[in-house]
Each structure stands twice: as C-alpha cells, then as structure tokens.
Amino acid sequence: MSVMATSNSARHSVFIAGGTGYLGRPLISLLLERGHEVRALVRPGSARKLPSGCIPVLGNALDARSYAVQIPPSDTFVQLVGVSHPNPSKTAEFRSIDFASGSGAIKAAAEASIKHFIYLSVAHPAPMMKAYVQVRAECEALLRATGMNATILRPWYVLGPGHRWPYAIIPMYWLFSLLPATREGARRLGLVTLRQMTLTLANAVDHPCEGVRVAGVPEIRQYGSFASGTT
C-alpha cells in the first residue's frame, strides 16, 4: 500500500486538536492536498496560524465542553495536543495539559460518535520520562474503553526543525541495535522524522481501521503500513 496514493481512499471530514503545532500544521497541509475536509481546534486569535483551506473551530483544548458540540460532522478525530519539548521537569504539565486534553477529547469524540480516533501517544515501556509515559498510557486505556475504532501511534522522538539534537546520538542507536541485549529497546525507542510522522498520520486518516491498531517506531519508519484490527 503506497502512503501517497489515495485513489482508493474515501474523503474524510477530520477534526484536529493541536493543529497549529509542530505536527499539526504539516499534517493539515497534507490532508488538504489529499482532498480531505479539515477542521482544527484553535484558541481565539490563532486561526491565522492554520494552513489556508483549513476550517478553524474556536475552543479550548483543555476544556472539551468548549468544542464538543462542534465536532460533528467530522468522522475522524486526531489528537495531537501535548506539552512541547517534553522533559522530566514537566511532570505537572503532563497531567494538566496532556492528560486533560487527551481524556477530554476521547470522551467528547465518543459522545459525538466519531468513527475513527487517532491518538498520538509515546513509545513504552521506557526507562525514562516515566510521568510522560504514564499519562499517555492512561489515555490509551481510556480510548480502548470507549470501544471506538482507534489508531495509536507511539513515536519516541520526532526529528525536525528545532528538534535536531538527537542526531548526535544516532551512532549510539546503531550500536545498541546490533547488541542482542539492547536491540529491542533501540528499535522501540528509536528516532523518526517529522516527514515520517506526517505521512503516518495522514495514512491513518486515509485508511481507518476496525478495532484498535498500534504503530510503534518500526511501523512509523515504514510510513504507516498498518494491518487493520491489530492490538
């Protein structure tokens, strides 16, 4: 399945939370290029940050009540909201931003009868960033409990503009991938590019699943070649 081909894909109405962020803007542009209708949640005064052609929806990502009634007629919900540049010092923010926005979005989407929910999680288990991983895992559990069809993406670090420092440790990843004791962890906690993430997210929109599917770093590197219904 080609990630760029959409001739066999239906046109979707997509609601995006986090559309003005690092992943949101390139994703919106790509979805619009592929012929989807895109509506993005923004705070008042931020609509100008959205790509041309995207429909702004005013609301607060931390308060699902502010936008819940505006989710229809979308059939797909993409949840990208989270703390920028996460690090261990931001434990409180993971709870007040990542969990608040994620849990609220999941509940609102379920009540709006969304057909496919796409959640940006994080690779786990991991030996670090435990508070961050815990919050994302809790949201994954909430999502599964709703019974919605869902795609869960688990990158570790996304390389791109302003996010390039891990290039310096790529040789270490290469070494760890060769050693039997560290090979699996190096694959699960590997690096992906902004382009790979954007293509994976767009491909998930193009090809909704039945049930729950999970894509980790190896799958993201393959540009989102999903098997429907895997758990």
Task: Explain briefly what this protein structure is.
With 231 residues, this protein is α/β, with parallel strands linked by helices. The protein has helices spanning 24-33, 91-111, 130-146, 170-178, 183-188, 194-206, 217-221, and strands spanning 13-17, 37-42, 55-58, 76-79, 116-120, 150-153, 157-159, 191-193, 212-215.
Structure in words:
The protein has helices at 24-33, 91-111, 130-146, 170-178, 183-188, 194-206, 217-221, and strands spanning 13-17, 37-42, 55-58, 76-79, 116-120, 150-153, 157-159, 191-193, 212-215. With 231 residues, it is of the alpha/beta class. Residues 1-8 and 225-231 have low confidence and may be disordered. Helix content is 35%, strand content 16%.
The coarse overall form would be globular
State the separation between the terminal residues, measured CA to CA: 20 Å
What class would the helix/strand composition place it in?
alpha/beta
Low-confidence stretches: 1-8, 225-231
- Relative helix content: 25-40%
Average pLDDT figure: 86
Keywords for this structure?
two-stranded parallel sheet; 7 helices; alpha/beta; disordered C terminus; seven-stranded parallel beta sheet; disordered N terminus; 9 strands; 231 residues
